[in-house]
Write the structure tokens for this entry.
Amino acid sequence: MNLISLSIIALTMGHVFSNTVRTLPAIAADVLQRDLGVTADGLAALTGAFPATFALAMLPVGVALDRWGVKPTALCLLTIAAIGAVLGAYADNAWSMLLAQMILGIGCSGMLMCPITYAAKNMPAQRFGLWGGIVQAVGNTGMVISASPLAFLVEYSGWRAGFLACAGLAVFAALSVAFVVRETPPDAATRRSLGDDARDVIRLGFSRALRAPIVMAWTSFAVVLGVRGLWGGPWLMEERGLSRVEAGHVLLLCTVALIIGPLLAGMLERRYQQHRGGILVGGHIGAVAAIALMVLGGALSWQVAADAVLLALFGLLISTQVICFALVRAATPPERVGRALSAMNVAFFGGAAIMQAASGVAASIGGIGAALMTFVVAVLICCIIFIMLRARET
């Protein structure tokens, strides 16, 4: 493995941390509600602060990636993220957890964009889709940590130990970046003003070339965060009667699928580049169909096994979201790719913040099933809009 590949993997350790810390509430929702004194929809609102601040931070992160480089941006963000994890461990009420989630959102805002941008700037365009899948696959191993391993840790040491473990992971990621990543600093002579760079991120977000993948991104990550990061654990424990550790085992199957899926999607994208849009839409429709079947499946004796299969199928199919990165990369010159990818990531996490809040309202009215179905409907709507936008381009 060459230095560029090693650098991408080292930067991806931050994405591992991000996936671990943001999916921790799924396996600790009940004890978090009890200790923080909040309801289910209140917890959804608290954890929704993570993607909200994440989305807001993406504009300056996109500028920083192109202006100062990937390595210094990653080290700064990982420091902020470690502080947020420590604050989460010592939160004793809703307001202190809100602060921790906001700081974590800022710190994690570039954890996917750093390796993706580094790959976009240092890998040939024809290999970028595959490496996008590799970054997602390695990063999604963080959800393995937040499944059965963190379930055991939360069960026997409490949820605060989970946040402290995440802080340790952030430190490890920062050390990996510091010692492995090598990067040529961007040319200072070509820099524009910060204001011009920030406006460029916004312009790219609304540009005709990026409009379709950005619409798809709006609910693509929201459904992953909603199913695997928040409501999956409560569904299995409250609706199916599983213990915390048993629910962790089921979520582990979904997580393994979320690791394998991006690799398969990356290979499909590389082989069938002319059919990117169809693969993307088909994967998302299949993924939410699996969630709908899970919710509508009733409470039969075999339903837990069926839920495990459906969650694994969901993980495989929703992983086609990595094609969004390839669509953006193909439409953007290398010197603007950090800003373009960050513009799309605003949609990923801005949509997640809004959808998480909406799912909390739905849960308070119709239960966890209603919260999950909120994501199903939203993804189907975005698929239709994506198809319409792509049709206008041809």
User: Anything to note?
Assistant: The radius of gyration is 20 Å. The first helix runs from residue 3 to 36. The CA atoms of residues 221 and 348 lie 6 Å apart. The chain has one domain: 3-179+198-393.
